[in-house]
Design a protein that fits this description.
Layout: H1 11-24, H2 30-37, H3 41-53, E1 57-59, E2 65-67, H4 69-76, H5 82-97, E3 100-107, E4 110-117, E5 132-133, H6 139-147, H7 156-165, E6 168-171, E7 178-186, E8 192-201, H8 202-205, H9 209-227
Domain IclR-ED: 70-228
Domain HTH iclR-type: 10-69
InterPro entries: GAF-like_dom_sf, HTH_MetabolicPath_Reg, Tscrpt_reg_IclR_C, Tscrpt_reg_IclR_N, WH-like_DNA-bd_sf, WH_DNA-bd_sf
Length: 228
């Protein structure tokens, strides 16, 4: 067990740093986080939840605390304006389409969800922030493959079509019953910084998620890119 260091004299800051360092050493359940830092569970949960609000921490598919996109973004040069700018754009996109929206960052051999918005009700797709997904399936993977020098199983003609129309789509590819459409988000210098996606039940979006949501998604992406 590593006791937190209160040497700075700012107790809540020292505790937040201790929690972040603990999670940085490996994903933690609340019990593990409490044991590792020596903090009471209620205190650890309160601070970790606050850090999650600021995207310093997030939770993986198992409910464990993991490092959030704010830290991974700093490590990989993610623009500081991206997440604040994306939030209202994604909320409007969800309101317009009625489907879920996700923002993905390329993280080595995976793509990581760094922001997500879901409709308030109804059947919809949920991708927790911090989730790491494959680059071998799904519309977001196609967009990354079309604009980044990564290994992928997609045909060159398929990727050229993605670049031509400005989006990629998939139906029951990464997950049966799930459909999505994705677009690239560029910085002013033309560098791909993220991929914005709309996803939902295949029954609502097939046969062409692009025909259903593509134009709304491209408009949202243009707005987000302009904010950068």
């Amino acid at each position: 067990m590593r006791q937190y260091n209160e040497g700075s004299g700012i107790k809540v800051l020292d505790r937040a740093v201790a929690i972040t360092r603990s999670v940085g050493a490996g994903d933690k359940t609340l019990a593990e986080l409490s044991d590792d830092t020596g903090l009471p569970r209620a205190t650890a949960h309160r601070i970790a939840t606050a850090l999650e609000l600021h995207h310093v921490l997030s939770r993986n598919e198992h409910g464990e605390w993991t490092l959030g996109p704010a830290l991974t973004g700093l490590a990989t040069g993610l623009p500081s304006a991206l997440l604040p700018a994306a939030a209202p754009v994604m909320r409007d996109l969800v309101a317009q389409t009625g489907e879920s929206a996700q923002l993905y960052q390329l993280t080595g051999s995976t793509r990581t969800c760094i922001a997500a918005e879901e409709p308030e009700s109804g059947l919809h797709n949920v991708v927790p922030v911090g989730s790491r997904l494959t680059l071998s399936a799904g519309s977001a993977a196609r967009v990354f493959a079309a604009h980044c020098p990564i290994d992928s199983p997609f045909d060159a003609a398929d990727l050229e079509q993605v670049r031509k129309v400005g989006y990629a789509e998939s139906v029951s590819e990464r997950e049966v019953g799930l459909a999505s459409v994705s677009t690239p988000v560029f910085q002013p210098d033309g560098t791909l910084v993220a991929v914005l996606s709309v996803s939902g039940p295949a029954e609502r979006l097939k046969p062409s998620p692009g025909a259903t949501c593509g134009e709304a998604l491209k408009d949202a992406t243009a707005r987000l890119s302009a904010e950068l």
